[in-house]
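Entry type: protein chain
Record version: 2
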Amino acid sequence: MMILLLSTIANSQEKVDRTKPPKPGPESKVKFPSYFEKTFPNGLKVIVIENHEQPIVYISFVVKSGSTYDENLPGLASMTAELLTKGTKTRTATQIAEEIDFVGGTLNATASWDATNVNVLVLKKYLGVGMDILQDVVLNPTFPDEELGRIRTQRLASIKQAKAEAGYLAGVRFSKELFSGHPYGNESGGNEESIQKMKRDDIVKFYQTHFIPNNSFIIFAGDITPNEAIPLVERYFGAWKKGPNPHRKFPVVSNVSQTRVVVVDKPGAVQSAIRIGHLGIDRKNKDYAKVFTLNTLLGGYFNSRINMNLRETHGYTYGASSSFDARLYPGPFVVSTDVRNEVTDSSIAEILKELKRIIDEPVPEDELKMAKDYIVGSFPLQIETPAQVASRVMTIEIYGLPKDFYDKFREEVKKVTAKDVQETAKKYLHPDKVLIVVSGNSNQIKPVLEKFGPVVVYDADGRKIE
């Protein structure tokens, strides 16, 4: 019996060709969940996504203003968000933390470029506790000076530590160069000068300007129905008063007009952090599905061209990637990698070669199919939990996308052809007009970078030194 079993196993192993990846299984027929919407008289919108598989409720309170509105104090939205949970008119930071911990829940507040949100996760039976704490931190924050001082100290220490990392320095300089004169050029978490200057009055002003019901929405996801959610919102937020619309237009950013090179000097560094790119797209761009597919092929997953080239073919790096960071306004397209000093120029040349190749040559059908299968096949994994679904509904709401966006997105990806990829690449990639930012040992890398364009050198504090 044992011999027969071993023989069967051996035969099955012989039939497996381990030099080839397994074929993907059939596509999962998962649809993006439908959801309920209602807008209260004060302008606050309520969204309910039902999922009764587990007795938990995830609540995301979203203000449609983020780091784009930091003005001359980078990090203001981020600091405001962090301080929301650090004290109210009736609770200290410790009491808030202890109350949510006591019921086994979580509470956090964050800011992105286009939104600030407060998230609560609780068991269904503690929904009242969760809503009471959520209302308190959203409507009654006091932004205590002692908490501001503590967070200021932590942020300054974090920034100092980050400035020792080449990747951080390259990313900061890339944004400053690409988005000069636009809020996207700022550090969303703040810099040493802005964090030092920031006062409680600045935070209160940001809060009073942007935290109004007609600039906000609240998402319930999980074991809850609209009939349960609506009375809760009425009770906790119904009396909240409207305010003036805080949104305004920001300047249009000009794209890179000619290739140029910026070095952030990191004396003694043995690696170079490379960022190459230019202006990308906004989140409502009609070609979003095509651009997403293009980027997946180029640098959006492990089998992408840039990663295979730099990692597998040449052994220059452990990983390389590209992304189109689509925001309310056009965000960056950027290729990112860290390489050894001696292959810095070779790596840049290979990246530019891949950008040009995807423009000049049609993508083979098998390569395109693999990328599209990856995009479509990974979608069900991205909407498994109430928090994941709420995050995608938040994206729909912030950027004014149609409710069926995610279902249509997958169908659009399936229809993308090699011709579409090539045309999209020609439209949105500009390898002859890129910003190249490298953080590393200037003495070693500057001479080999001059072949790509004029080189300017900065130190870690942003001072031009060459």
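Comment: The longest helix spans residues 145-162.
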